[in-house]
Amino acid sequence: MAKLLYSATASLDGYIAGPGGDMSWLTEHLTGANPTAERLLANVGAILAGNRTYGGDDPNRGTDSEGAFGGQYHGPVFVLTHQPPAEPPPDITFVGGLHDAVAQAREAAGERYVNVLGADVARQCLRAGLLEEVLIFFAPVLLGDGVRIFDDPGGERVRLAPVPGETAHWYRVVR
Predict the structure, then answer these.
(1) Are 117 and 68 in contact (CB under 8 A)?
(2) What is the mean pLDDT of residues 147-165?
(3) Mean pLDDT of the chain
(4) What percentage of the chain reaches a pLDDT higher than 70?
(5) Is residue 53 a contact partner of residue 121, using CB atoms and an 8 Å limit?
(6) How far apart are CA 143 and CA 139, in angstroms?
(7) Coil, helix or strand for 53?
(8) Are 36 and 170 in contact (CB under 8 A)?
């Protein structure tokens, strides 16, 4: 069964987007080979994103690299939202409930990962006991403000353990 993995690139001060969801800061940091990202992409069977992430900024907007994984991901995408568009794109599935969205994404992913995109959906998955792994790439920049990697006011502490044989910032959720 597919595992749920939250992956993101963050600034060193812990932001995945700047104020207002701005992602332009990331463009200069998406150059060069990244073996971990390439390995991840090869193992992603579906994407589960929040509506803000789906409709938000893209650091590669207007280029051949627009889209998930620099435009290299081509597969099922599920968007968690209570407000789907009137005319959804044919290759995107909009789902109103978290458990239903996760179930559909897991089925589509098979034995590969469901890559969770968006801090809010990651928080919801963690609170529901569904999130299994976390992978964070860090960019050498301090944003000072914006959307945090993970923000759960009043939430509980969550232990993470390194995934053996992986990068220093790839963890499994310890229950």
Answers:
(1) yes
(2) 93
(3) 91
(4) 96
(5) yes
(6) 10
(7) helix
(8) yes
Question: Measured between alpha carbons, how far is 8 from 47 in angstroms, rounded to an integer?
Answer: 13
Average pLDDT for 48-75: 78
Residue 100 binned pLDDT confidence (cut-offs 50, 70, 90): very high
CA dihedral 127, 108, 37, 156 (to 10 degrees): 0
Residue 125 CB partners (closer than 8 Å, separation 6+)? 4, 6, 48, 98, 102, 116, 131
Global pTM reads 0.91
- Residue 160 CB contacts under 8 Å (≥ 6 apart), including other chains: 134, 171, 172, 173, 174
Q: For residue 100, what are the CA distances in angstroms to 24, 77, 90, 120, 130? A: 32, 14, 19, 16, 12
Is 135's pLDDT higher than 70? yes
- Residue ranges with strand state E in the chain: 4-11, 15-17, 44-50, 77-80, 92-95, 113-117, 133-139, 147-148, 160-162, 170-173
* Cβ neighbours of residue 173 closer than 8 Å, sequence gap 6 or more: 126, 131, 132, 133, 134, 158, 159, 160
Kind and range of the H or E element at 125? helix 119-127
10 Å CB burial of residue 116 (0-12, 13-18, 19+) is buried
**How would you classify the pairing of strands 15-17 and 133-139?**
unpaired
- The whole-number pLDDT of residue 60 equals 65
Q: Are 79 and 93 in contact (CB under 8 A)?
A: yes
